[in-house]
Amino acid sequence: MLTFPKGFLWGAAASAPQTEGHALGGGKTATTWDKWFELNPEKFNNNQGPEVTSNVYEFYKEDIQRMKEIGMNSYRTSISWARLLPDGKTLNKEAVTFYRSYFQTLRENGIEPIINLFHFDMPWWLMEKGGWETRESVEAFAFYAETAFVEFGDLVKRWATFNEPLVHIECGYLYGFHYPAIVDFKKAIQVGYHTLMAHVKAVEAFRQGHFEGEIGIILNVTPTYAKSNEDRDMEAKNKADLLIIKSFLDPCVLGEVSKDLVELLKDNELIPTTIETDKEIIKHNRVDYIGINYYQPMRVKAPETSQVPAQTPADFFASYDWPEKRINPYRGWEIYPEALYDVAMMMKNDYNNIPWFVSENGMGVADEERFLDEKGMVQDDYRVDFMKEHLGQLYKGIQEGSSCFGYHTWTFVDCWSWLNGYRNRYGFYRVDLDNNLNRSLKKSGLWYKELSQHNGF
Ligand code: BGP
C-alpha cells in the first residue's frame, strides 16, 4: 500500500472555456475561441465549437454531487475573463452570481476550489488590440485578477494566475493550433514576456490587497531527455530546458529570469521590449506554490541544420523519436511515468523544494463507447493503470522529500478540447453528446473513490 501525506489533495482539473458552455450567454462576450469557431468552423473536429461543452454553467450543482460521489476533495477550474468583465471594465453581475454559487457549493460539499484566471481564453476585445503582444494586456489582466480576488476572495483560498502559459505562446505564435496561428519567434517571445508580467502583476495585486490564501501558477513541465550525452545533444537539451522549463519556473519561483536564457535570446536577436522596473517587480512577487501539468516527456537532439539568428525553436533543438517509447496512440503522446519522479526531484533540488502539486495528468482516449459494458459503464482499466504508474513514481519522489501536496487528473467529466472538440475523452464521467449531455460514471471513477478514501492504493 502506498500512503500519501496527510491532507493530500485528490481531485481533477478543468477550465471555464472547456466546460461552461453558453459561450455567448449570461452576458459573456466572445473569446478568441468563439471568434475562431465563427470564422473557421472547419478547423474544429466534427465542427464542435465552444458553445456547447459539458455545460457546467447549468449543471454545476449536479456535477458537484458527482465529484463528491467519487471522493474528490478539491477541484481546479478557471474563471472566464470575458464572462466576468465582458468589456474588460464592467462587472457582469450574472457572472458574479454564477461563480459565487459555484464556489460556495464546492465548499459546502467539502471540495476545495482552486481557481485559475486564464486558460487560453483571450477576450476578443483585447485580441483586437493585439492580445498579449501589447503591454496594455498586462494592466488589463492585473485589473481582472484584482476584481476576481475582491469578488471571490472569501470563497477561494488557492488562486492560480495562468494555466500552461507556454501553450498559448507556442500554439498561437509558433505552431498554429491557437488563434492567431502565426509563426513569429520574436512575437512569441514578446507574448511570453507580457504573459510573465501579467502573472507577476496579478501576484503583486494579491499581495498588496492582503487577500487571504495562496497564489501560484500552473505550468506544463515537459521534462527533456537528450538523445545522447554528446555535447551537441546536451547543448540542445540545455536550450530546450531554458525555453520550456526555466522560462517561467525561474522568475515565478526564484524571482529572476535565467541569465542563460537572456544570453540565448540576445544571441538570436529575440530580446523582448521590457520596462526598467520589471526586474524589481519580478523579484518581489514570487509564488506560494506551483502546479505542474505532466503528460509526456520531451526527447531532444541537436538539429541537423540551424540558423542564427534562430527563426523557430527548431533551430535550437530537434525532436528525437526514442525507439523504446510507449505511446498513447489516440493523443500521440509518449507515456513515461518515470518523468514524474524526475520532476519531483527537480522541484526539490532546483526550486527550493517549494510546495507543488500535480495539477493535471491523464489519458485521452477516442471512441470510448467501445469499452461500455452491459450496464453502460466504460471499463477504462487503461486509465487506472496510467494513474497507478504515475502515482507510483510520484510516491517515490515524495518519499525522497519532495513537497508535493496533491494529484489532480485531467479531467472530471469529459470535456471539450479546443481544435480536437470531443475526440479524446479524459473524464471519470462519460458525457453523452447524443443524449442531453448525460453523465455516466466510468470504472476509473470508482477506483479514484477508493484511492481518495484510503489516501493511497
Ligand atoms: C492541457 C490543457 C487542457 C487540456 C489537456 C488535455 O495541456 O491544460 O486544457 O485540454 O491538456 O489535452 P488535449 O485536450 O489537447 O488532449
UniProtKB/TrEMBL annotation:
SUPFAM superfamilies: (Trans)glycosidases. Keywords: Hydrolase. It comes from the Bacteria. Pfam families: Glyco_hydro_1 (PF00232). The keyword Protein transport does not apply. GO terms for molecular function: hydrolase activity. Belongs to the glycosyl hydrolase 1 family. This is Glycoside hydrolase family 1 protein. It comes from Candidatus Vagococcus giribetii.
